[in-house]
Amino acid sequence: MSYASAAKSYQKTNIETADILKLVILCYERAIKDLESARTFHENNSLEKGYDKIHHAQDIITELLLGLDYERGGEISINLSKLYNFMLRELMGINSSRDTSIYGHIIRMLSELKEAWEHVRASSSESYATVSLPDVRNWEARA
Predict the structure, then answer these.
(1) Which of 82, 83, 79 is nearest to 108 (CA)?
(2) What is the pLDDT of residues 107-131, one digit of tens each?
(3) Long-range pairs for 81-86 at CB < 8 Å and ≥24 separation?
(4) Candidate from 1-5, 12-16, 99-103 with smallest mean pLDDT
(5) What pLDDT score does 9 carry?
(6) Dihedral sign for Cα atoms in the order 46, 111, 19, 131
(7) Alpha-carbon distance 36 to 30, whole Å?
(8) How does 80-98 read in b/e, with b if 16+ C-beta sit within 10 Å?
(9) Which CATH class is domain 3-142?
(10) How much is the pTM?
């Protein structure tokens, strides 16, 4: 088994066996990775490759948005919704801009949210999660 094949198999198992909070964290990690790659492609004028990464990050953020539980999450879900919608709006026009600083802003927001979810996961059980996600196990295959 090659290294790439082993890594893909490990990653698939990691996603398939993750609890809901871990899935949320994995979503943030992948969106951050996609935006970091997109920024590099953008800076090197490989806009089509960058757009593919932006589109994947948008898909992830959209799924996080759609997975919000407003009944259980209350104000937290409302605030997350506002942040996700802001990020999506910013990403829609990013390829037409020469300014790549927006990547850094969105990556920082996603990183802070990821850290918050890591803290929630470390300090509480899954039953207190305020987000439920649809099946995200095919995201890696699309990237």
Answers:
(1) 83
(2) 999 999 999 999 999 887 544 444 4
(3) 83/109, 83/113
(4) 12-16
(5) 55
(6) negative
(7) 10
(8) bbebbeebeeebeebeeee
(9) mainly alpha
(10) 0.76
Domain-wise residue ranges, the chain: 3-142
The answer to whether the beta carbons of residues 72 and 130 sit under 8 Å apart is yes
Q: Is 18 left (phi over 0), alpha (psi -120 to 50) or beta?
A: beta
94/112 Cα distance (integer angstroms): 21
Q: What is the enclosing helix (H) or strand (E) of 53?
A: helix 47-66
19-63 tens-digit pLDDT: 889 999 999 999 999 999 999 999 999 889 999 999 999 999 999
Bridge partners for 131 per DSSP: 68
